[in-house]
Amino acid sequence: GIRCCIFDLDGVIVDTAKYHYLAWKRLADSLGVTFTEQDNELLKGVSRVESLKIILKLGQTSLDAPQFEQALVQKNEWYLEYIAQLDASEILPGAEAVLSQARDAGMKIALGSASKNAVLILKRLNLLDRFDAIIDGNKVTHAKPDPEVFLNAASAVDVAPSDCLVFEDAAAGVEAALNAKMKVIGLGEAEVLGRATLVLPDLAEQQLNHMIAQL
Ligand code: G6P
Ligand code: MG
């Protein structure tokens, strides 16, 4: 059975996906690259470096190494500006309840996020102490869809991958979980997340035991 829940952060626990999009959009505009909300689906769950590579590819353009670094810094500065007011009111509906249900069921709880801002954000949301392990963008070398982030999370709480359930809002994250041989609940649209074990629109009104019974 499931003994560990691994949560993605952006778009699963907190509504930061829109701020990532705004910051990337602003950067793309500054580079003269057309970037739509549909293009943004490709960036969800993907590391900062890989995201910039995707944007440059979309625009069929390139940056030299110092410009590339500068663009990464600029995007994060804008992103941090957008989340300056972030607080617990932006925890996504149902997320806190599912965290509590996992805790009450005696499960391990881990974070598996590509974000280097994960700890800062969890502190702002007052959720840091809900996690037994935090594997974030500072701890992994291979971006989703590589399974590294989820495998490291499972190993940090000493649970076999087959006993882990991942919650993800991104296609790359669903693939990463499948590559880790874990069950995965995709939160969002079936067209994007169809390969997940189960797809739900979001966590609102969801009960952990009911979700697990459907896997
Ligand atoms: C998450 C988000 C991505 C973001 C990535 C890196 O996976 O879904 O949109 O690019 O984290 O986040 P960071 O905060 O390190 O730029
Ligand atoms: Mg996400």
What does this structure look like?
The protein has 215 residues and is α/β, with parallel strands linked by helices. It has ten helices and six strands, in the order βαααααβαβαβαβαβα. Strands 3-2-1-4-5-6 form a six-stranded parallel sheet. α1 crosses α4 (65-82). The model has no long low-confidence stretch (mean pLDDT 97). Residues 8, 10-12, 44-45, 169-170, 173 line the site of magnesium ion.
Hetero ligands: 6-O-phosphono-alpha-D-glucopyranose, magnesium ion
What's the rounded overall pLDDT mean? Answer: 97
User: Which secondary-structure class do the elements indicate?
Assistant: alpha/beta
Helix content: 40-55%
- Got a strand count? 6
Shape: globular
Biggest beta-sheet profile: 6 strands, parallel
Outline the low-pLDDT stretches: none
How large, in whole angstroms, is the Cα Rg? 17 Å
**Lateral arrangement of strands in the main beta sheet:** 3-2-1-4-5-6
Chain oligomer state: single chain
Terminal Cα span = 11 Å
